Amino acid sequence: MSFALQRNTITLQGSAQIVAEYFQYAVNNILYQRGVYPQETFDVAKKYGCNLWLNNDEGLTKYLHAVLQQTKVWLEQGKLKQLVLVITEADTKEVLERWTFDINTNRDVLEGKGPLPDKPEKEITQEIQAIMRQISASVSFLPLLESRCLIDILVYTDSMDAVPEEWEDSDPRSIDNAEMVALRGFSTKVHAVKTMVTYKQQDDVL
After folding, report:
1. Which residues of 141-161 are buried (b: 16+ CB within 10 A; e: fewer)?
2. Ranges for the HORMA domain (predicted)?
3. Fewer Cβ in 10 A, N or C end of the chain?
4. pTM of the prediction?
5. 106 backbone dihedrals φ, ψ, rounded to 5°
6. Domains parsed from the chain with CATH numbers
């Protein structure tokens, strides 16, 4: 019984690892489903009870690893507010899609007040699985990306005394007259994550 209870107890560091791992799989599967990178640059991975995809391009893998390592640190510090995957047209630099992950941190856990929350790992996995299925189904309503695209990742945090030198300021990369679709969220009871996609409307074709 004590072993089961221990597994259900969510620490700040454990929650940060869960959320960072979610970002890794969510971003990779968005890139796969949206065709931003060729299908042959992805390997299948079994995660959350689903067949998901991880990109094996060395440059992209290195970039995502660096981003996610830093966001994990900010998650543990309770500083991360939002992560945004931006997809832009390569030639025009026009923003076509913004995949936004809003993060809310349990302040009591962050400040060490009260007991650590309990939540079964299976329940968290099921919540994330539902989001991954929605990402896979997003191709049914998102406009086809017909041109070569690039990506960028924006991170919004609480004010900090020092920012790593490899990070730089950016404009919001917003989309005018955009459509927005909210996906499911998940919670570890330490971090709550809401996911949504904003995309450029297609011009009506007569």
Report:
1. ebeebeeebebebebebeeee
2. 13-197
3. C
4. 0.89
5. -70, 110
6. 2-200 (3.30.900.10)
